Structure formats: structure tokens, C-alpha cells
């Protein structure tokens, strides 16, 4: 048990460092404004309801995270302009570097990685959407910085697309559609300041900000399962195997609405349990609760199921006990709801500072 406490303490320190870095992003932006000529920032995301069904028009409750990804751009005059791209992970380590010829975004490096080829595709698509994008005689230096581990699945791609679209003065949804696909809820989260209800209407994205900071938020935690799920593969499997029913979409919408307005923890747990059964029936995957059948509370898969994060809720266990439980199953990352989810500033405006500091 002592070793578990030490591991939990170490993970808490790492997590607090990550959160402190991104929670101070306003100060970082001021510093970045001095370092770069242009600077952009996109939030990460978690999808609490509507997973998979959101592709067929269901309403999903999507939660922007406090952590995200930044992009800074610097320009220098040049007679033979080139684009240099550097991407840094949450620890400040360079994980991707690429150099592009300017006019057609040809890759200048030998044996480019799959990630560099995907980046080239994004840049070319941005040029298609805005023919004036990067046409000046300047060297361009781009630096991206992740505020969360890449393997967490919080939106390293969606925040990249969002930031690139802001830079290129083009639609992030169109850019995403032509490169990665998906419903686009993650793009909406990247630019939102709080929880949103998102849905597709005739293929077009629609969303609105909502108040979602439950009175029982101290009983809610996010647990990282240790593997990044491939969203595109999961979507393709869903499309191949399942024909959604209108009644299912209607019930997903009702659950989403009820969750947003829920004030009772037990009712909240019943709702997410019903939601789990609906999605489980659609994709043929067992609810996550079957894997942790002795957990004293409720569990819900998020996003593409099978990897990334799950939501855990318990009134019987405190934070340390929840940490110890999942640590005993080899899962070391447990994050309280209030430390991870970006509250809507307008919704929270009626609270005093003392209400927010625990």
C-alpha cells in the first residue's frame, strides 16, 4: 500500500505541474505574444454523451478540457522561403520536426514520417481553402506545444486543425472534414470556453454553451485506461455494423438534456448506465463496468470506447480510495472533474473566488 501511495503522489505532482502550466495559459499567451508574431490556442476535449450516435444527428454533451495545444508562428524575410515546423510534447521534448518547400509544401526531409505526411496534407488543404495562405517571401517558423500527453487522446489532432485553420483564416470544420473526418465536436471544443451541446444538422455543425458543473462534481473523476483509441477506425466499424434507430437518437438526446440539468448523483448514475447500454448495443462492446465489476460506484466510457478516458463516479469512495482502486488495476492516472474540465466563465460568474478555491 505504501508503494501505491508513493506512485499516486508522484502522479499527482506530474498532473499538478501539467495543470499549472495550462491553467496559467493567459500569462503564457502574453509571453508568447512577445516571442511569436502570431499565437493560437485550442482546448482538448472529452465527449460525455452521444458517442457514435452524434454522427447520425444525436446531441452530445462535450467538455473542453483545461489543457490543450498552442501554436506560435514567427516570420523572417527570405528570397527562398521555407517552412520549418517543430512540435513539442507536454514535457517540452521535440517529437516532430519537418521542413517544407513553400509554394507546394513539398517535404524537404528524407524519409518523412507518417505524421509529417499528414501535416503536409493539412497544409495543402488549408491552401486549397485559402489560396492566399503563406504566399509571402518569408521564412516561416512554427512551434506547437502540447499541454497533455499525446497518448491521452484529448485532441492533439483537433487542436492542431483548429489552430491551423485560425492561422490560415479558413474553416476548421472544413479542414477537419477533408483531412481527419469525424463529427467535428472536438473542433467546437477547441474554440469553446466551457461545456457545449453539439449536434449535426444536415451535416452542418451546431452547438451552444451550457452550464455543466454538477453539485456532486467532487464525486466525479476521469481515469486514463492507458491506450489511445483510433477514432477513425472506430467510426468506420460503427458505420459498417450498425443502423441507428430514430428512437435511440431521441433517447440519447433526452439523456443528454437530463444530465446537463441533473442535481442528484444517483439519478446521474442511472442515466449514464442507460446510456452505456444504448452505445454497447450499437457497437457490440461490453460496458466498461463489466471490467471493473467491484468498483463502488458508476463508470462510463467516453469518446471512441476501449481506450483513452472513462468517467468514474462514487459517493462511497474519496479521491485517494478511487486512486488506490484503479492503481491496483494498473491505472495510474485519475483526475478530479474540477481539475480537468473547463467551466463556462459566464456560467461561473455568479460564484465568488472563495467558492472556487477548495
What does this structure look like?
There is one protein chain. This protein has 358 residues and is of the alpha+beta class. It has 2 domains: 28-46 and 60-209, Ribosomal Protein S5, domain 2, CATH 3.30.230.10; 217-356, 2-Layer Sandwich (Alpha-Beta Plaits). 39% of the residues lie in helices and 23% in strands. It contains 13 helices and 11 strands. It has helices spanning 2-23, 25-35, 114-129, 156-168, 172-177, 185-190, 231-241, 246-261, 265-283, 319-327, 337-340, 345-348, 353-356; strands at 38-47, 60-77, 82-88, 94-101, 138-146, 196-201, 204-209, 220-224, 298-301, 309-313, 334-336. Strand 6 (196-201) and strand 7 form a beta hairpin. Helix 3 packs parallel to helix 4 (156-168). The longest helix is centred in the first third of the chain and has 22 residues, at 2-23. It is globular. The two termini are 27 Å apart. The relative contact order is 0.16. The model is unreliable at 346-358 (pLDDT under 50).
Short description:
This protein is of the alpha+beta class and 358 residues long.
Cα distance spanning the termini: 27 Å
Profile the largest sheet.
7 strands, mixed
Helix proportion: 25-40%
Tally of contiguous helical segments:
13
Give me the secondary-structure category. Answer: alpha+beta
Kindly give the count of domains. 2
Q: Which fold does the CATH topology of the largest domain refer to?
A: Ribosomal Protein S5, domain 2
Q: Order of helices and strands, N to C? A: HHEEEEHEHHHEEEHHHEEHEHHH
Compute the CA-based radius of gyration. Answer: 21 Å
What would CATH call the architecture of the largest domain? Answer: 2-Layer Sandwich
DSSP E strands, number: 11
